[in-house]
Amino acid sequence: MKHFKHIAAVILFLCIFLSPSCSKENEGDKIIKFWAMGTEAEYVAKLVPEFEKQNPGIKIKVQQIPWTAAQEKLITAFASDNTPDACQLGNTWVPQFAYLNGIVSLDKFISSSPIIKKENYFNGIWDTNVIDSLVYGIPWYVDTRILFYRSDIFKRAGYDNPPKTWAELYDLSKKIKSLFQNKDKYAIYLPTNEWAPFVIFGLQAGANILKDNSSRGNFSSEEFKTAFEFLIRFHKEKLAPLGISQVTNVYQAFADEYFSMYISGPWNINEFKKWMINDLADKWKTSPLPSKGNNYPGVSLAGGASLVIFKNSKHKNETWKFIEYLSKSSTQIKFFNLVNNLPAVKEAWGDSSISKDVYMKAFYQQFENVAATPKIPEWEQIAFSKIQQYAELAARGVISSDEALKNLDKDVDIILEKRRWLIGKEK
Amino acid sequence: MNIKKILLYIFIGLTSILTLVPFIWMLSASFMADGKASVFPPIFFPDEFVFSQYETLFVRLSMARTFLNSLLLSFSVTVISLFFNSMAGFAFAKYRFIGKKKLFNLLLSSMIIPSQVTMLPLFLMLKSIGLINTYMAIIIPGLANIFGIFLIRQYILAIPDSLIEAAKIDGATDFQIYRKIILPLAIPILVTLAIFTFLGTWNDFLWPLIALTDDSMYTLPVALANLMGEHTKDPELMMAGSVLTIIPVIIVFLVLQKYYIKGIMMGSVKE
Amino acid sequence: MIKSAKNKFSTYSSSAAYIFLAPALSAIFVFFFIPVIAAFIISFTDFDIYALGDFSTVRWVGFSNYFKLFDDPLFWQALQNTFYFVIVTGPVSIAVSLTAALLLNSKLVKFKAIFRASYFMPVVTTLVAVAIVWRFIYHPKFGIMNYLLSLISISPIDWLGDPLWAMPAIMLMSVWKNFGYNMIIFIAGLQNIPEDLYEAADIEGASAWNQFRFITLPMLAPTTVFVSIITMIGYFQLFAEPYIMTQGGPLNKTLSIVQYMYQEGFRWWNMGYSAAIAFVLFFIIFVGTLIQFKLQKSDNT
Fold it and tell me: How many whole angstroms from its chain centre is CA C257?
């Protein structure tokens, strides 16, 4: 008898406890849920108090989602109607959520905003947020991939300046490799679980990544093939390490001279600074990417994160206020100083904290020449699963580059079947 | 003879230690400062004990909340499913009703359906009633469990009918019989099943990974896997997270291992 | 150990039985059987990311998801990996379990509880946590595994980064993680073998090996079948180990069926396709179980 009462009590307790609990915040406060990724979440939280002070009645709740699982988490949230009010969205993801009808067009907010105007931003970056001539995201911070390199090793290899062309890049890599008789050192780190370099070099070679209104793969094109083979050659000739598991810590490996070049983005600057210390501190530099011909710098990806408002948000106006706050030049500078994310607002680049930074110049130069990846919802799957899959197969020499690209096109065409059907239906 | 015995002990001893090496390393690395576990040859004892990894877990990554989530969810699933399973097990053991054998066989044979089959529709179902990303999303699929019903039924079968008859004559209702006679007698198997369910829920990964989107809702394995994505370069922190995750299950196991092991043995006895 | 009470039980009202059954069975029906049927239906549609946004884009595609699977090299790779894993890890882990059970069942050994607990420890611990630890154990530069190998002067292996070694590395970890469970079942089986069989064999002067071969193994046969069925079912569902340790790489050499299903379903939201993968997995497990039952039957007769 007693036992049973206990159990019943416990169950009752659990039922009460587990039922969707109401929030404990002030009734009047409007709570804006904002999702940010990785370390950005930790730092953006530091910008929140000032906003809340300026805007009594609005509370910002920041949640961190890890980069690696962000894609899954966001769509799960969307599919289950658990989206936040606003979110930081990698700008290659904007199309996906725009097509899914998950985020709203911001044009009516922009047209009356004193703070956010198109001309404040880099052209190539702003463009990534425009889908069918509607703006779905406001650039929050920008990034692009440039070359991080060990200037000391470059010197030892006989290069006083970073490579400006593909030919120089290759020649330099050869020289670095022969510099280290020790076999386990490499010139450049080109992990096959990063699709970006493959796409960047493809764009530099003038490839159209997809064709027929972005409904078919175009990886077998002469242009893309040239680029792909150029990169795979680094793996084949041991200028780049094959596996990815040896490098648990990229920064440590860079400090250990395991490799001397890495094509990557600004999110690495702080980490490199942390690891390249003492006499290594001035031994690394950044430069824009080399180009295929003589039009240095070569094109890179228009990356970064945009701020978007989800359709389900009940506080769109308040959320927009927060986005405006984050887009102020002064906030952008503060954010840069916290986390080194490059400001999307061009005015902020004039601040001495940025203009004096030796690593920043290369980025500014690079932003003159950035391009967007195809703006279709399937792009993520194509990039992360297919390009990486075939890049790895080719890098390890399991299949030839020709075969890899042909299969890549085949797989991409299968992925895009639905898109072709939808396009046909619209017509 | 003696040599044989000594060799046997050496072998058992060595393999036991070998089995435990990953745990020992996990524990010691969790007390090392950043970067100290990435050395060759590996060291098994930190030259300096630091708690900074645990501090990071609790202070910066709010793992206490995650820990409580795991605890609360495992506990509620255990309590509720024990209740459901024991009633069903009782019915299957001691009642005669139409279709009993067929029903029981259907349940038993459906145990080979891998749970992954159900995940997509379950996700869509829970989504449509708004339960994704709530605790209920974890509790609901664990409400009842075929293996649990089977285990309890096996045990209750051995309870003599005469006890039930006697109570019946005294005018006890079916429900009174269940809670006054069956439940007390079935305590050993209930404990066993409780451990199974608790550990199963605590350790479950795939479903919580899918069904929980808010980091404030995460269970330990999901939080740990997320951490792995973000902090691959901090093995010491990951070790601390792993220690935190397995300490409770090791405690539960060590304290109640008798029941646990009996349960495995019973589950393997076929009719 | 537990014998069913064969005597007829009392004739209580069967309505009470239904009431007792109702909560558990309705939960199982609604949250297990209905989803299984729904998954089956979904596997004949192209439910995908567009359908999440606009349900009207879902198309009935018949068997085309299943046909697509046949044409999908990645699926075959996943299938091959999973079979490789099951076929090697299954027998190895059963052999290790049996050895451990024999050791612990030996009359020569004392302090059994301690040894048993340490053998068993990996079973109860959280897979995600230990997979993380093993990832570092396998680290090519700083891992224990390569350190141990270096002691016998074997040059370091990039365990999880080498397509050849990644799966064996996961197998080794899985054997370590799981052998304790089957060990317990084997101990139960061993204890059920009547002592007098061995006594009789002793009198006839049978060697230990012969006793093992002609008494222990045959008497353990039902246990072995049970163990191999549950082991196989479990191993076919390989997921967390590769998810944590290799993400299916290198070269997709550790991609398992369940992981592929997860990727297609919950990363790329090709839910129709993913459901088809789940059913193929179900079919494989079903056939596998049937085969083992058949083997057992033919063994007995």
Answer: 13
